[in-house]
């Protein structure tokens, strides 16, 4: 398995306006290929000179946009996979039947709640984004709604994470 720890460290030490670019690229990549936590972007010590809330807002906005862009790329791959019988057949025969799991869990949420369900799934801190994104990408067909739902879910997760951290720090 490939080790992407160096990328996580790069994000955790990103500073300046270039640091926002690093956050955008990282968020783009975790949407469709990297098994890394999205919340790590909140640790970036950007030092932009806009104050804590300005930096936090910039991180959330840039990360959400990066993940939405990566999600649209994953969405496109999902649309292509939908058309490819061999890919679905391979997934069904694999040791861990991704298609069956998706149909039983994530697809149920997608069908019941649609794009709102995708946004809610992406709001769950610590839950892998890639699985939800690919599961929804095979079912849905609207690129704009998909991008909007992934942005809202991604930004919502970071807001929840940051609010939780603020609440804990206020108690300490």
From TrEMBL:
Transmembrane portions of the chain: 14-36, 113-136, 148-171
Keyword Chloroplast: no
Domain VTT: 37-162
Keyword Membrane listed: yes
Keywords: Membrane, Transmembrane, Transmembrane helix
Protein's name according to its UniProt entry: YqaA family protein
Organism: Halorubellus litoreus
């Amino acid at each position: 398995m490939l080790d992407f720890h160096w990328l996580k460290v790069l994000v955790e030490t990103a500073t300046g306006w270039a640091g926002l670019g690093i956050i955008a690229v990282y968020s783009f990549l975790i949407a469709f290929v990297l098994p890394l936590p999205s919340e790590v972007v909140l640790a970036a010590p950007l030092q932009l000179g806009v104050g804590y809330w300005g930096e936090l807002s910039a991180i959330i906005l840039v990360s959400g946009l990066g993940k939405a862009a990566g999600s649209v790329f994953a969405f496109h791959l999902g649309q292509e996979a939908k058309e490819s019988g061999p890919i679905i057949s391979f997934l069904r025969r694999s040791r861990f039947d991704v298609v069956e799991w998706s149909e039983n869990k994530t697809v149920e949420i997608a069908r019941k709640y649609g794009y709102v369900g995708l946004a809610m799934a992406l709001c769950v801190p610590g839950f892998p984004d890639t699985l939800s994104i690919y599961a929804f990408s095979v079912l849905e067909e609207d690129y704009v709604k998909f991008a909007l739902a992934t942005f809202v879910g991604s930004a919502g997760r970071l807001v929840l994470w940051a609010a939780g951290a603020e609440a804990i720090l206020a108690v300490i």
